[in-house]
Amino acid sequence: MIYLNTLAMKLFYMALWMKQRATLGAQIAVLKDQKVLLVRHSYKPGWHLPGGGVDPPEAPEAAAERELYEETGLKLAERPTLLGVIPNVSSATKRDYITAFTACAIAESHSRRSREIAEIAWFPVDDVPADSHPMVGKVLARLRQHES
Fold first, then answer.
1. What is the pLDDT of residues 60-115, one digit of tens each?
2. Which residues contact 36 (CB under 8 A, 6 or more apart)?
3. Domain 22-147's class?
4. Which amino acids are annotated catalytic?
5. Element housing 47 (H / E)
């Protein structure tokens, strides 16, 4: 009987997982003098591109700009360029997608401290920290393809 209950629970959670909708996030690679801006969160390890979830009915582009400002205090001088939509295979559900953008011109910078962000730093595009999230490498690879 215990086995059947365990099996029933596994089937229930599998069915629930299969009904989950895909999520959409937005990340932005801000470039300056051959360097990319990365953030280190206070609640998880490693370096990440600024970004986060897209809140319906928000456009991914607007979400990238909003997250950039919330996490770093930077505002862009121009609209970011779409690099593509990349599956986030490191997510728990394997159903998350990241819209990746790039931008170069910063309009203004405000001193902004968020409890979410522990550190903000610029790194050479070809020499990001070893503990960077895999999505950083994927977005930078997409950027190189976009430039060639």
1. 999 999 999 999 999 999 999 999 898 876 555 566 788 888 888 888 787 777 88
2. 29, 30, 49, 122, 123, 124, 125, 128, 136, 140
3. alpha beta
4. 70
5. strand 47-48
